[in-house]
Design goal:
The chain is α/β, with parallel strands linked by helices. The protein folds into three domains: about 1-60, no CATH class; about 95-120 and about 225-405, Rossmann fold (3-Layer(aba) Sandwich); about 125-220, Rossmann fold. Helix content is about 35%, strand content about 15%. The protein has helices at about 100-105, 125-140, 150-160, 180-185, 200-210, 220-245, 260-270, 295-300, 325-335, 345-360, 365-380, 400-405, 420-425, and strands at about 30, 40, 55-60, 95-100, 110-115, 145, 165-170, 190-195, 215, 250-255, 285-290, 340-345, 390-395. The longest helix is centred in the middle third of the chain and has 22 residues, at about 220-245. The N and C termini lie far apart (about 75 Å). It binds ligand F0G.
Length: about 425
């Protein structure tokens, strides 16, 4: 702990980062987004600021431009990441689907679906984990842990075991979709089911990590968010390739607001290198379920901080979160980019899940929140008809088979002969 910067503009789109001579290793350092304290990145394990407990961000004074990227997947963007290589299962390079019918129905000029469910374990968490688990290896830790609504636990279990490390996951009992528990289980994580919600699980795992029992790989870990920046880089490159322009808006589901923070971070980096003009930065637009919408409440009330909701409920269990820990990074991201946040009902989420399914895109409920939110904002006139929009769908349909079956058509029993089947078909 040495150099301290003036933090007043640290989370603005136009701040230039100054490398702190004493704490930067190879031009990379950790900086507190609240007080500006800086730390060497790989010497001591820390997740938050020693001085004020604020959130940390990984910073570099050698930021890349688009020309520096080559190859495919998350590690195409190695120049933008704190390590040159990771523990990889070929994550990233997910499809940016065209959805002409949905685009016309929602009523925007362009709608593309960035389907993060097409990652190795079926969610965007893989992008963060390939980096986070590599950092864990660099730090020499051998037991990794997370609290999870499911997807983080699946990714941690897969990447941890690929990296040869022990994994521990704390899940809210009875509130995690079946596919996710199955993944954590088969990849060999020790699964602890907590009699409490996700936020309680995170409190406990943070406590375990601070006692040195485990290495924490929730999105509080700033290295994980570095990997998740690559979603933004892929969307920007995709729009540039197909339209020669940037998207006006990125709409995404919000739980802990890690993705929102990661996208905002990469936009700030691109503004610093001159790759993206401030006025071209896509408007970050967060969507929560009505029963778990503390970020929306903070945006609507123009509040400086988010109020923790102790009671949360939604069918979209992945985002059943009442205390979005990355809010101090994400609130400025939504505001500075001219975005907004909106809450949607569980019914609207299921309807959007069906809309996407009609286009052949299978997503879990939380993912469909982005499309439900876009529809609502378009209907309200907050999103204009001439906008080019990317919606993020964060997890695959098979993550939550029960929700998919409930939203879809029911199987029909038929006799075991052709005549009987024809009779049912004609009925
Ligand atoms: N969508 C899905 C499918 C998720 O699993 C999550 C978070 C989010 C959206 C929200 O992302 O936290 O970056 O705002 N899932 C975490 C987990 C909490 O444990 O799997 P965020």
């Amino acid at each position: 702990m040495t150099d301290s910067h003036d933090p007043s503009h640290t989370l603005s789109l136009t701040a230039d980062w100054e490398s702190p001579a004493e704490t930067a290793a190879d031009g990379t350092w950790l900086e507190c987004v609240a007080c500006g304290e800086t730390f060497a990145p790989f010497e001591t394990i820390r997740y938050t600021c020693d001085a004020c407990d604020g959130l940390l961000e990984v910073r570099s004074d050698d930021l890349p431009t688009f020309d520096d990227f080559s190859g495919t997947g998350v590690w195409r963007y190695a120049e933008s990441l704190p390590l040159d290589s990771g523990v990889t299962i070929q994550e990233g390079n997910t499809p940016l689907y065209r959805v002409p019918r949905l685009e016309a129905d929602v009523g925007v000029e362009t709608l593309r679906i960035k389907h993060e469910g097409m990652n190795p374990t079926g969610s965007f968490k893989d992008r963060g984990m390939t980096v986070g688990v590599a950092v864990a290896r660099e730090l020499g830790v051998d037991r990794l842990a997370c609290a999870s609504t499911g997807n983080t636990s699946a990714a941690l279990a897969a990447y941890g075991s690929r990296g040869g490390m022990e994994t521990l996951v704390l899940l809210p009992a009875g509130k995690v979709a079946a596919g996710k528990v199955a993944q954590a289980s088969l990849h060999g994580a020790r699964i602890l089911e907590v009699d409490g919600n996700f936020d309680r699980c995170l409190d406990i795992v943070q406590e375990l990590a601070s006692r040195g029992e485990t290495y924490l790989l929730n999105s509080l870990n700033p290295f994980r968010l570095e990997g998740q920046k690559t979603i933004g880089l892929e969307i920007l490159e995709g729009f540039q390739a197909d339209y020669g322009t940037w998207p006006d808006r990125i709409v995404l589901p919000v739980g802990n607001a890690g993705n929102t923070a990661a996208l905002y971070k990469v936009f700030r980096e691109l503004v610093q290198t001159g790759e993206l003009a401030v006025e071209d930065v896509p408007k970050l637009t967060g969507v929560q379920a009505e029963g778990a919408a503390p970020m929306v409440e903070a945006i609507e009330n123009d509040a400086d901080a988010v109020r923790r909701w102790d009671e949360v409920e939604t069918r979209a269990t992945a985002i059943r979160i009442g205390n979005p820990v990355n809010a101090p990074k994400a609130l400025p991201g939504i505001r500075e980019t001219g975005g907004t946040a909106v809450a949607v009902s569980d019914e609207a989420i299921t309807a959007a899940q069906r809309d996407l399914a009609e286009e052949g895109i299978g997503v879990e409920p939380a993912s469909a929140a982005s499309v439900a939110g876009l529809r609502k904002l378009r209907a309200q006139g907050v999103v204009a008809a001439d906008e080019r929009v990317a919606c993020l769908t964060t997890g695959h349909l098979l993550k939550d088979p029960d929700a998919a079956a409930a939203a879809g058509r029911d199987p029909e029993p038929v006799p075991a002969d052709t005549a009987g089947v024809l009779e049912v078909l004609e009925s």
